[in-house]
Amino acid sequence: MLEGYPLPQGAGYAILVGLGAVFALGMIAVTAMLRRYQKEIITAEEFATAGRSVNTSLIAAAVVSSWTWAATLLQSTTQAYKNGISGGFWYASGACVQVILFSALSIKSKQIAPGAHTYLEIIKCRYGKITHLIYTYFAVATNILVTAMLLAGGSATVNFLTGMHPVAAIFLLPLGTIVYTLFGGIKATFLTDYVHTIVIVVIIFVFAFAVYASSPLLGSPGVVYDKLTELAKTKPIEGNHEGSYLTFNSKSGGLFFVINIVGNFGTVFLDQGYWNKAIAASPAAALPGYVLGGLAWFAIPALISTTLGLACRCLEDSPSFMYYPNGLSNEQVAEGLVLPVAAYTLLGKGGAMASLLLVFMAVTSAMSAELIAASSLFTYDIYKSYINPQASGKKLIMISHATCIGFGASMIGFSIGLHYGGVSMGFLYELMGVIISSAVLPASLTIFWSKQNWMAATISPVLGSIVGLISWIASAKSLYGSVTYDNLFEDHVMLIGNIVSLLSPAIFIPILTFAFKHESFDWEILKSISRVDETEEILSSEGEPLPQDKESGGLNPITSVATIGKQLAKSNKEKLLQEETEHLAKSAKYASWICAFFALAFLILWPMPLYGSKYIFSKKFFTGWITVLLIWLFFTAFMVCIYPLWEGRFGIFTTCRGLYWDLTGQTYKLREWQNSNPDQLHVVKSQISNAIHEHGNSDDDVDKIRYIDDELKQ
């Protein structure tokens, strides 16, 4: 049995402070290079949307990275430890489908509201202020719960591996992320997500090959299979068919599967972080980015859980096990410590360091997405909506920066409170759906169903949340006789609360819609949501005064890139808008079929025959299962490590060439190239995208908006 901690405290501080500083300084340098060589100027629009031009591979990489939380690694591994081989699959399939389904919302939102910065802007434009404020609560609650889980799981792992006090870990984990997010905005999130994902994928490969190929403690799928078969006789899993670790027929696993599906609908559909990526995606990248990202993500929890979750079970009776001759306590399992215990037992200090690095990458990559999400919500849905509707771009980006700092500091304090209150990551993960998922259905129908009226959209999520919480608490009292933390954490209790919260609006919405006045909503009204005018920010960032006559052509092309972008778009606006509209319409048609296919495949066609047949894996089938997951992770590696380099090859070449020109004293060549190729500059492309959707409200538009406002007031 290990005495002390696997790693010294210095290792924890080196990762949290040192590596966090490296990422922060690296992102500052990258932001400076992108600004100099590709004219990526961080305006308010750029901070939140990256010019709405991010390509498929970076969207996919960002989805993989942002969805790879601490819970993805720790909770999935915990489920495999508790429920056997099905546990990791239940986690992966139950959380993969939502990302793929979200692609349909992504396409639809870009069709009907191309100028929106958040999904709450769409809700406000359609239903008015009261509804908007209600959904703002659900959006902020989602950000808080996700961030709290990140810090709870990450700090527990850091404390376990290094002995660093959990409060210190909670404080230090977000610092570097806050810094680089401030400098680079959502583009910093995309770029650091790419680096984080590479590290995560490499470490998972190391663990997988150690367990199934090289470790003297295990070393092959056959050895793991034999040990799991023996454990079914000596330590059977209650509720699994014949107590087996190698069957999908698991009572606890099946309950978690439903809880996982329900909770993650809220986490994806109501998290502004995913809407930010959808808004930042180019029209051509939105559908493939989310579908490929969801498919690539699946292998990460599926393989890491099948590797370390099962390995931890197999190694508990080995003298090398960290807590030999005892197993893990229920508290340690709930805190998500299965992964680091298995990693240390397998690979010693190297495994402990790898698991520390893995969790650090998962926490910080998801944290950056939550910071941008929170800043977007406060900037556009609170400050611009209610405090200063005429705010300039400079004022908005200042508010975005302040929100990043304020939200980060608030979450540090909140997470410290949860730590001292004894609330674990696993509890938050399962509670999440009870609190937020009642808003999923009405928020989605806001975009997809023109007949949902104000009453249904406004009242159904509130009623759903209330009955969900009542069902959760009442079921604990009814089933276990008292309402305690442990009883509220029971599978059946969480299941009841989650299902009632998600599905009760399906009853309330049609009743409220057809009981009160409802008319088909005119989707064209949503196109009145406008983007922020970046002209002043761009010109001032170049050190030039804003011209009195913006139509004058006497400015240097580089300092008047906003004007150039608008002029280029003006000459070809109708064609560009038509192409984008046709592409989005085609993507929307494909999205419905793709979403239906993968939902059926991951939720029914693949797992249910294995569950219903009570099949116990044979050694050959188990070996094939592991082989498929390894191949799938190679696909993930290609999608998120190699493909982004290929799609970004022109930008990489442009940056490297500009850097070479500067280092060799040929800066004049950089200016010449920028002057002669303005259409290749990012800021000009951003202005073209902005200009093709730019329009003042016509008299008809104003009349429609006034009519809707009058209806809402009545």
From TrEMBL:
Which GO molecular-function terms appear in the entry?
Answer: putrescine transmembrane transporter activity; spermidine transmembrane transporter activity; urea transmembrane transporter activity
Subcellular compartments: Membrane
Q: Which is a Pfam family this sequence falls into? A: SSF
Q: Which UniProt keywords apply?
A: Membrane, Transmembrane, Transmembrane helix, Transport
Membrane-spanning intervals of the chain: 12-34, 54-76, 88-107, 133-152, 164-183, 195-213, 253-271, 278-300, 356-378, 399-421, 427-449, 456-475, 495-516, 590-610, 622-646
Instruction: Kindly give the InterPro entries that the UniProt entry links to this protein.
Output: DUR, Na/Glc_symporter_sf, Na/solute_symporter
Write down the membrane topology.
Multi-pass membrane protein
A GO CC term?
plasma membrane
The record's family statement is: Belongs to the sodium:solute symporter (SSF) (TC 2.A.21) family.
Q: PANTHER family under this entry?
A: PTHR46154, UREA ACTIVE TRANSPORTER
Name of the protein in question: Urea active transporter
What is the protein's species of origin?
Wickerhamomyces ciferrii (strain ATCC 14091 / BCRC 22168 / CBS 111 / JCM 3599 / NBRC 0793 / NRRL Y-1031 F-60-10)
